Amino acid sequence: MAAPVTGAAPAPQASPTPLDRVIPAPASADPGGSPYRITRGTHIRVDGSREARGVGEYLAGILRPSTGYRLPVTAQGAGGIRLRLAEGPFGAEGYRLDSGRHGVTITAARPAGLFHGVQTLRQLLPAAVEKDSVQPGPWLVAGGTIKDTPRYGWRGAMLDVSRHFFTVDQVKRYIDQLALYKINKLHLHLSDDQGWRIAVDSWPRLATYGGSTEVGGGPGGYYTKADYKAIVRYAASRYLEVVPEIDMPGHTNAALASYADLNCDGVAPPLYTGTEVGFSSLCVGKEITYDFVDDVIRELAALTPGRYLHIGGDEAHSTSHEDYVTFMDRVQPIVAKYGKTVVGWHQLTGATPAKGALAQYWGLDGTSAEEKERVAEAARNGTGVILSPADRVYLDMKYTKETPLGLSWAGYVEVKRSYDWDPGAYLPGVPGGAVRGVEAPMWSETLENSGHIEYMAFPRLPGVAELGWSPAASHDWERYKGRLAAQAERWDALGIEWYRSPQVPWGAGGR
Question: What beta strand segments (E) does 113-184 contain?
Fold first, then answer.
């Protein structure tokens, strides 16, 4: 891709960003009163909890480079920026932000709410606050009150590290970008035909051999257990829960190439570096298959503090329906045995989803009514649904036919299309209460570095985040595109690559 072209430096912001200009849109924003100005004398005041202090230090780490101020984090005094844990109508992730002449107070019942409130505060400050060198300011926060709670508890982004491998630092960079928009789940696609990306002590060749390549024949790579734990810890520090995925029984060539015994004929296929799908399958009839699955899930569950473990289940075209049902009947209880809740792609509903399982729908607007009804029937029987329609929120789909990256099998997905739909009413027959939320997958057949990830995520990712967080009544493309345009200056300040969609009135500040 060509190097980004930046516009002229914008003039210092003379008036504060209105409270309702942030993404995701807050549940309510009531402007009023004088703005607060961050100055050399500002302190960040926290209560005595370790979690609140951690959020305070995170906020200070954002503000100090650009303001040049000390911004001590302290439990003493009054005024300034206050982060406060207190019971109230906030739920697990909601918050209240009060701003006036004497300070800004963010109140939440849980640390995640404080953290999300801090993301709102970031967006209320000039975009230059994101830069890593001292900027002129002024650092004004509009006066008034925001009350905010999310619509859905699952607001996810998936990163495919199997088709192309991404380093720990690259994953951390994406985590920071997700956090800005209150995403709370990072789904890591850790295995596929082209590469196995997590060390498994009991089956070491999965990583050392199965992880030794990627699409196009590059060197691949894998995460040691220490690497994976570092990602999990970093995500947790940004209030994202890692959901690991081991895709099976299909998408398993890297595993089949690593261990011949996993193949029905006992012959290991060669490693694979192409992009076709649907040709591989674990051997459903061999007991060693379930020993393998048990070991992998046991080790991965032990590394993963979150509730969920994703078992894939999509595009198992070389597995018969009978074998697929048999496999899922055997594998889902293994996930439960190690204390995790099953997530699977929506093909799981063609078997019998375990009690409490979640089905991730990745079909299209034009997917058959029969397939949609199978998902709806499972939802009516208690299976939760995560919505990831490929022709809406697959971030690896090309924007237009000219897009230099990505695929187009689900069509072209411009910014308006990715935003302009309602998760609560998308699948006919699915009860509203069965919809757990939304997730934006990023498959990596054509993506090789952070710049590629960012170009495909921005500007679509913030819209998906808003669909997951904001009240349905606030979803309005005409109003949203103006708020989205205002984000461009922030992306520039953060060094994010992004696509200048002609559907959005970017203005002179964007490139």
Answer: 139-141, 144-148, 154-160
Q: Is 322 annotated as catalytic?
A: no
Q: In this structure, are residues 31 and 142 in contact, taking their beta carbons and an 8 Å threshold?
A: yes
CA atoms of 131 and 495, how far apart (whole Å): 9
Q: Among 302, 198, 321, which Cα is nearest to 250's?
A: 321
Q: Look at residues 471, 496, 481, 395 and name the one whose alpha carbon lies nearest to residue 147.
A: 471
| Statement: residue 6 has pLDDT above 50 | no
Phi and psi, residue 495, nearest 5°: 75, 25
| C-alpha span between 164 and 175 (Å, rounded) | 17
DSSP H/E element including 241: strand 241-245
In degrees and rounded to multiples of 5, residue 139 shows phi and psi of -105, 80
pLDDT in tens, 477-505: 999 999 999 999 999 999 999 999 999 99
Per annotation, catalytic residue among 130, 276, 287, 315: 315
**DSSP for 407-475?**
B-TT----HHHHHSS-GGGSSTT--GGGEEEEEEEE--TT--SHHHHHHHHTTHHHHHHHHHHS-GGG-
Query: What are the pLDDT digits (tens) for 228-263?
Result: 999 999 999 999 999 999 999 999 999 999 999 999
Rg for the chain (alpha carbons), in Å?
23
Taking residues 277-295, what's their average pLDDT?
98
* C-beta of residue 460 within 8 angstroms of C-beta of residue 96: no
2 by Cβ neighbours in 10 Å (0-12 / 13-18 / 19+) ranks as exposed
Q: Is 217 exposed, middle or buried (0-12, 13-18, 19+ CB in 10 A)?
A: exposed
Amino acid at 370: E
pLDDT tens per residue, range 65-123: 999 999 999 998 888 999 999 999 999 999 999 999 999 999 999 999 999 999 999 99
For the whole model, what pTM was predicted? 0.96
Number of Cβ within 10 Å of residue 268's Cβ equals: 18
Q: Are the C-beta atoms of 157 and 183 separated by less than 8 Å?
A: yes
Query: How far is Cα 98 from Cα 31, in angstroms, rounded to an integer?
Result: 10
Rounded-to-integer distance, Cα 49 and Cα 63, Å: 21
328/310 Cα distance (integer angstroms): 12
